Amino acid sequence: MKSVVGLIESKLMPLAGRLAQQRHLGAIRDGYISFMPFIIVGSILLVISSFPSDSYKAFMASIFGEQWGSTIEIPFNAIFSTMALFISYLVAYRLAERNDIDKSSAGILSLSCFLILTPFSVDAHGAAVIPMEWIGSKGLFVAMLGAIVWTETFTLFLRRNIVIKMPEGVPPAVQKSFAALIPALIILSMALAIRVFFAATSYNTIHEFIYSVIAMPVRHFGTSYFGAILTVLSISSLWSGLIPVP
């Protein structure tokens, strides 16, 4: 047992510490931490509505009506069914914070690109709607990867001064808005090109491609015996190094 602990302390802990210093992983971590309170609140409401006790459910129904459970779950569904949107913004925001660029512009740009990559559908009345399938947990891979790619591209444009420069005396907020104009135009065009490209493939969307090629194999491996062991070890070792890092 001591040898295992020693191995973890000598090999895995330094690795976890180095991973914690990696700015992209740090941005993902900080983005999720920012969203964590809402995940906890939604989970608490889900527990309240799904508490495994018939007497409890009968008591709540007698006070709040038969539909009390579905009513309480509305915030849970609102949070978890759209979490990819928030993660897309927050990861880009935190990465922009580390890159010392305009955080709000980076977050909005990332969210806009995510929506461009997310296919709209048409309902029975002919109205365009966003399918909930890809803005929830199934869209997290695209949200995280996209946030990193778009923010790094945005950073590259700003650092090379590929921006519209305003004359002196213009308010800083206006300067930031116009500075993001050219990078936003190019990056949004890149996102549109990616959407058009995947629309011509059998996957139809980048969401379906990422989910089929990356997410599904990872999920199948994670449900295996060795995958479960590796998952627990990875979570324990990584978080032991990531949490203490400021």
From TrEMBL:
It is found in: Cell membrane. One of its GO terms (cellular component) is plasma membrane. The chain crosses the membrane at residues 32-51, 74-96, 108-128, 140-158, 178-203, 223-245. Signal peptide: none annotated. One of its GO terms (biological process) is carbohydrate derivative transport. It is a multi-pass membrane protein. InterPro entries: PTS_EIIC, PTS_EIIC_3, PTS_Sugar-EIIC/EIIB. It comes from the Bacteria. Its main location: membrane. The keyword Cell membrane applies. GO terms for molecular function: protein-N(PI)-phosphohistidine-sugar phosphotransferase activity. Keywords: Cell membrane, Membrane, Sugar transport, Transmembrane, Transmembrane helix, Transport. Residues 8-246 form the PTS EIIC type-3 domain. PANTHER family: LICHENAN PERMEASE IIC COMPONENT, PTHR33989. This is PTS EIIC type-3 domain-containing protein.
